[in-house]
Amino acid sequence: MAVSELLAVGSATCTAGSIMLLGTASAKLGIFRSARVQLVSAFTMTALIAVLLTGWKTPEPWALGFLAASSFFGMVIGNLAYNATIQAVGPRLTALLFALTSPFSLILGYAILGETITVWQLFGVVVVLAGIVLAVGPVRGLGHGLPLTGLGLGVLTALVQALGTLCARPVMASGVEPFVATTVRAGFAALVFVIIAPLVRSGGRVGWQPQVQVAAASFLGICVGMSLLMAALAQGHVGLVTTLAATVPVVILPMIWAVTGTSPAPQAWAGAILSALGTAIISLAG
């Protein structure tokens, strides 16, 4: 396996580990407080990286506007929905539903930017959906099983993440340094959460452990995971790297097995593999 491919798998592993860390801490902190700690931590860490490793160059005003829009969708709404999804359906299904980001990005690119969609990419969308349906199983409200609210939150998370990526696309194409872009996005979202914090009931006092756990999840998922992904994209085939980085629904299953001591059901493995395969088809057929 090439270095770029190892880096991409490392990125997926970090993202899966981040979801696992958020699984218990988010429930203790609450959705709003967890998202706020996560984003303030992400802003602080990515700002340090941007200044120390790459140097800071402020994007042009038009780029700041697009990054603010990207942050609103992908980080403000996205992180709230993301944390709510983890609480509603757990880490495994959160990672699985997040795989819908790729089909949503494809559809939004077609609808808004006029990008073309190949037959193979449409087939990839069908495979992703089939994997999710297989792994999720019955839905409460339509049968018995997964709460319908949790499913809706997962779909919303993937949709706003795709919108956030779409807004950031012209900025990244203009050559803005990735860590600078991420710092701006995280900074805008963190500012929003800090401003509205007095208006939100945060519940009782919480110890430092869950807050450290959320900060660690932010470091692992955003800082380390994104760094590995950027390094992989700089060295390897974009489609292959994107595909390997999207194997989070598969990578997280052994982690759940190790933590709980119980192997996920066969349909969980099959559904996760199918969703990763569908993402691969979408990426490689583009």
Task: Give short descriptive properties of this protein.
two-stranded parallel ribbon; mainly alpha; globular; 11 helices; 81% helix; 1% strand; 286 residues
Look at the structure and give the mean pLDDT. Answer: 84
Q: Output the structural class.
A: mainly alpha
Query: What's the tally of helices?
Result: 11
- The best one-word shape is globular
The overall number of domains is 1
Distance, first to last CA = 23 Å
Low-confidence stretches: 140-144
Proportion of residues in extended strands: under 5%
Number of strands: 2
The biggest sheet amounts to: 2 strands, parallel
Order of strands, main sheet, comes to: 1-2
Helical content band: over 70%
- Order of helix and strand elements from N to C terminus: HHHHHEEHHHHHH
The value of Rg in angstroms is 18 Å
Question: What do you see in this structure?
Answer:
This protein has 286 residues and is an all-alpha fold. The protein has one domain (3-284). It is 81% helix and 1% strand. The protein has eleven helices and two strands; from the N terminus they run αααααββαααααα. It is globular.
List the helices and strands and how they pair.
Layout: H1 3-29, H2 31-54, H3 61-98, H4 101-113, H5 119-136, E1 139-140, E2 146-147, H6 148-173, H7 178-196, H8 208-235, H9 238-245, H10 248-260, H11 266-284
Parallel strand pairs: 1-2
Helix pairs in contact: 1-2, 1-3, 1-8, 1-9, 1-10, 2-3, 2-7, 2-8, 3-6, 3-7, 3-10, 4-6, 5-11, 8-9, 9-11, 10-11
Task: Provide a short characterization of the protein structure.
The chain contains 11 helices and 2 strands. With 286 residues, it is mainly α.
